[in-house]
Design goal:
The protein has about 200 residues and is α/β, with parallel strands linked by helices. The chain has a single domain (about 10-180), classed as Nucleotidyltransferase, domain 5, CATH 3.30.420.10. It has helices at about 50-65, 75-80, 85-95, 130-150, 160-165, 170-180, and strands at about 10-20, 25-35, 65-75, 105-110, 120-125. A five-stranded mixed sheet has the order 3-2-1-4-5. Strand 1 and strand 2 form a beta hairpin. Helix 1 crosses helix 4 and helix 2 (about 75-80) crosses helix 3.
Length: about 200
């Protein structure tokens, strides 16, 4: 059962990212401030839900949240500054979009780059513990999936409509056959070693 909040008297924003381990496409992050009494029986870590459940929750979270923001950092920037820094930057972008300033940031995971003037708390596996982080994980994932489906239309051979840029067998086989395209992260060791 998800905790509805961590600090009863503070405005909390849950923060999470999606797409850190992908071979292609941007990394996305979301920040969500939920009302303290927000409840939904399906709300959970996005990885515990199927696509249909996530797509059902997304408009509900957007409508019922006090504020939400979504940020993305593209593959060129990921290659330039590395995926960890890009994840932090996407998170910061999502926080900047919040219409209400949170008093504390609840960040999924164990590392975060301090955001100016707002304290944060890192929570390992927070997306399965705190409602606002779970909500952020769903927004980050659904926004990223929608983006990957869109760019799939121009590069259908990589199967991004199904694998969303992760290193599945279909995706790896296509890379071996066709090489990398403009959406691939060149800094990731994706190409097989030359025999």
């Amino acid at each position: 059962m998800l905790a509805p909040f961590l600090h009863q008297h503070l405005i909390e924003a849950g923060i999470d990212e999606a797409g850190r381990g992908c071979y292609a496409g941007p990394v996305f992050a979301a920040a969500v401030i939920l009302p303290k009494d927000f409840r939904h029986p399906l709300l959970n870590d996005s990885k515990q839900l199927n696509e249909k459940q996530r797509d059902l929750l997304r408009p509900l979270i957007e409508k019922e949240s006090i504020a939400f923001g979504v940020g993305q950092i593209d593959q060129k920037e990921i290659d330039r500054i590395n995926i960890l820094q890009a994840s932090f930057r996407a998170m910061h972008l999502s926080i900047e979009q919040l219409a209400v300033t949170p008093e504390i940031l609840l960040v999924d995971g164990n590392r975060f780059k301090t955001y100016p003037f707002i304290p944060h708390q890192c929570i390992v596996k927070g997306d399965g513990k705190i409602a606002s982080i779970a909500a952020a994980s769903i927004l980050a994932k659904t926004y990223r999936d929608a983006y990957m489906k869109k760019i799939h239309l121009a590069f259908p051979q990589y199967g991004w409509d199904k694998n969303k840029g992760y290193g599945t067998q279909v995706h790896r086989d296509a890379i071996e056959r066709l090489g990398l395209c403009i959406h691939h992260r060149k800094s990731f060791k994706i190409l097989p070693a030359q025999k």
